[in-house]
Each structure stands twice: as structure tokens, then as C-alpha cells.
Design goal:
The chain has 236 residues and is of the alpha+beta class. The protein contains 7 helices and 8 strands. It has 2 domains: 145 residues, Aminopeptidase, CATH 3.40.630; 49 residues, no CATH class.
Length: 236
């Protein structure tokens, strides 16, 4: 097995791009999404995200892919490790650049690597791990971070890797046919409180409109972008 590094998603083998273009798969670990991030310069060296996509070749075929970015800061990850960076700095050690395998700006659980069916996944991961460890030892980055990965068999859970666990709160529809079904799971006091809150919103003339992406107008996108930017202006 041989490791390759590409600095543009479009330079990855066609087989990888096709595998990440299957309809109805994860919308973020997706060729169109990852490519768009680079084409719009949302992900670029000037933004502190240097694409360093890792893929593995075996028998003249692409068998493994790991999104990899060389980061000069910690923004856009939604994993707040600035305290680690400060600790490195206090001890005279560089924390940046670091390597991150993640979906930029997307704190959503999901797949974070691709293995071609029929490939020995453990062997492919060992090959990738050996490359990453050697690169870190050579000073190419301070550390490697795998963010918001989903799956039971996470790689590198050994003495040289630490597993950091966090909590996310997800709302799941438990077969509710309507809002009253949802309220029916609550105690009377909470039902009344929620109905009062919703009534106040309705009295102010606020309404909810649901649109598909193809239905959005130019003004909708401008408003959405303004709201998105405001989050960063207020919270960093």
C-alpha cells in the first residue's frame, strides 16, 4: 500500500470522488460538498485550512481516503482546544500547524473515511497511521485530530491516541403524527407552558416557512448568509 497526498479535492482519483457522490448518502462527507468548500475558497490556505487529502493506493487502485487539513488555527471545528494551544505555548512548543480530519464548519456526526469494499480496513488504517505518525515525528504538524467521527471501530485507540468524548443533544421523532402527540408525552404544566410560549410567538406575527434548497431565492440566500455571519460575529 502506498500513501498519496493531494492539495485539491478535484485531484483525488475518480474512484474516490464517485464513491463520495452516491445519492442519499451523508450530505457532508460528500464529493460535491467538499469540492464546493474549496472552489468557493471557504477552505483554503488563506483561511487557515490547507487541504492535505490522504489516500492510499494498492494494486493500482484507490482503496482508502481520509479528508485531511493542515490548520493554522482552531476556528471552524467546533471543538474548542484553544486551552491545549495555550498549554503548548506556555511550554515553548508550537501547537499550530496541526492536522485535522473533519468536515470543515460542520459539527455533525458522520463517516470520516472511506475504505473500498473488499479492502482490509485494518491494514489500510495501519498504513495511514504509520504515515501520520512519521509526519508528526518529522515536525510537519504538532498533532492529528479526528473530529465527530461516527462508528464503533474508531482507529488509533492505543497508547499513542487519546479519545475525547463530548455530548450532543439530538431530538428524534418518536413516531409523532403531530405536535399534539409530542406535547402528549409531557406533564400538564410543561404542556401549558409550551403552548403559552408558542402563542406569544404567533401573536407577534412570526411564522415558519419551510423551503427546499432548490426553492430558495437569491434574497433568501443573502438573508441566510447574514444570519450565519452574525453567529460568528457574536460568538467567534
Amino acid at each position: 500500500m502506498r500513501v498519496h497526498i493531494e492539495q485539491r479535492f478535484v485531484d483525488l482519483p475518480a474512484e474516490i470522488q464517485q464513491a463520495l457522490s452516491v445519492p442519499d448518502q451523508n450530505p457532508f462527507f460528500n464529493a460535491a460538498f467538499l469540492r464546493a468548500l474549496e472552489e468557493t475558497a471557504c477552505v483554503s490556505p488563506s483561511q487557515g485550512w490547507q487541504p492535505t487529502h490522504l489516500w492510499i493506493e494498492s494494486a493500482d487502485q484507490a482503496v482508502f481516503y481520509l479528508p485531511l487539513y493542515k490548520k493554522s488555527h482552531s476556528w471552524g471545528e467546533f471543538v474548542f482546544d484553544q486551552s491545549w494551544a495555550n498549554a503548548y505555548h506556555r511550554h515553548g512548543l508550537p501547537y499550530y500547524p496541526k492536522w485535522v480530519s473533519a468536515i470543515p464548519f460542520t459539527p455533525s456526526l458522520g463517516p470520516r473515511w472511506w475504505v473500498k469494499p473488499g479492502t482490509d480496513a485494518a491494514l489500510a488504517w495501519q498504513c495511514a497511521a504509520d504515515y501520520i505518525k512519521a509526519a508528526l515525528a518529522g515536525g510537519m504538524a504538532s498533532s492529528w485530530h479526528l473530529l465527530f467521527a461516527q462508528g464503533e471501530d474508531l482507529p488509533l485507540q492505543d497508547d499513542e491516541a487519546l479519545v475525547r468524548r463530548d455530548t450532543q443533544f439530538h431530538w428524534l421523532n418518536q413516531g409523532y403524527q403531530g405536535f399534539d402527540d409530542f406535547l402528549g408525552q409531557m406533564k400538564s404544566r410543561k404542556r401549558k407552558s409550551m403552548r403559552r410560549e408558542r402563542a406569544k410567538v404567533a401573536e407577534q406575527g412570526v411564522s415558519l416557512v419551510r423551503k427546499l434548497g432548490t426553492e430558495l431565492s437569491e434574497s433568501d440566500w443573502i438573508e441566510f448568509y447574514a444570519c450565519y455571519c452574525n453567529t460568528y460575529h457574536e460568538r467567534g
